[in-house]
What we know:
With 516 residues, this protein is mainly β. It contains three helices and 39 strands. Strand 20 (284-289) and strand 21 form a beta hairpin. The chain is globular and about 65 Å long. The protein starts with a strand and ends with a strand.
Amino acid sequence: MTSGSRGKRSVRLSVGAVVALLVVVLAGCGGSSSSGGDTSFTGSGVPNGDPANTRNLSGSTIDSGSVSSLQSAWTLPLNGASAFGIYASSPIISKGVIYSQDLLSNVQAIDAESGEVLWNAPFEQADHGPNGLTVANGLVYGATPTEAFALDQKTGEQVWSVKLTKNEHEGIDMAPGYHDGLVYVSTVPVNVEEFYGGGAVGILWALDAKTGKKVWHFNTVPDDLWAKSDSARNLNSGGGLWYTPAFDDEGSMYAAIGNPGPIPGTEKYPFGSSRPGPDLYTDSIVKLDAKTGKLDWYFQLTPHDVNDWDLQDPPILLKAGGKDMVIGAGKSGIVIALDRKSGKLLWKRPVGMHNGHDDIGEEAMRGKTPKLPVTLLPGSLGGVIAPMATDGKTVFVPVVNSSLTLSSQTEKSEGGPGNGELVALDAATGKVKWKEKFATPAFGYVTVVNDLVFATTYDGTVTAMDVKNGNVVWRQKLPAGTNSGVTASGNLLIAPAGIAGAEGQTAQIVAYKASE
């Protein structure tokens, strides 16, 4: 979901791949939901707490009165890093068992109370994340970089596997969605060997949850990749999902789509001129019929993206101000609220640092291109990279402030790791309620637990804040850095620390327990 440069080639990095770019820097440093879904990780088994992606964990007993009593209960080592780090997902808890996937695609079932590993399902296939799992109907659903799979929930034995990538330019980097007997997994134009390889089309697949049989697919971008010639088509790529879709009670799903490539362009085709026009459905939220994949509406935030500004965050469904909404955000650093029925924009709020280039892609589409070099804020490692959360009244937005300088069409440089903040927005209006600033980027998922909101930062700090005013009520340093979010169930708080970038750090999953 992010890009940098490697030699003469445009490079795309996911949230997990931030490790590869920033680890040297770190080493140098001393709910309310109308989805009808279960809003507890205790039994829901879905990546973001419920089908509406609220990340509101009402099944936990941890609150402002007990959070100060949290103490380490057990730890579990994280091993086997890929080139993009060790861990980049948010584990889920279903019926007292933690289900966890690392960046070698390996899956573990862990007893939540004791930390004992119940079973392992090794894949040893490097991924750069974000990946993760979903549990339903006695099965654990996940993906490797090329295939979707289902494992027996009790034993970890593989039940089915199906290949989804069409060519060597594509990959898979998401936790599957599940709804009413179907599993949803998307390809993306990225894998650990290649970034934005020409001809890679992001495709969302609906699979039969029992057998893995392909039921329908939705091309998030067209097969011709907007090109008018073979030479241009061989350069272009785009689309796909990085996070789990949201599902409502009326049979619809809401998916957030990634960006087009190349970024920003090539010397022959500068600023995306090999893909003229808005490049639908990149950087868009689409509403689909969950049973058929038929498109209802779309909203594109960043037409003709030339800065890798995915609208990739998992959409959140909620009702605020008397309106059923879809909340979305991405690396443009802009949060939007859409009318769920029509897709009409209800409000729009920039968060974090911006320097006047928010419309660079749309201007390039119309022939107005900036003189190089140019520095952009947010950069392709900035904006809203990790999933948001909501308590139904407020939307909690993790922000990364990091710049990107474009020196040419193929040469770019990140402005360092930057810093972060958590911005609380009024769900009905988008108005800023409060902010909490962090010294390092907020790459981790945000999680609401009763009257608290938890955020994690790249240096391995977990911070709990009062949802009403942002006051910090608890802060803990993990044994390593992190770009994951916490999970809570009962009196347990589970915090992965998967970035061991500095001397003395150890990558672990840490379980904290609050006093009863």
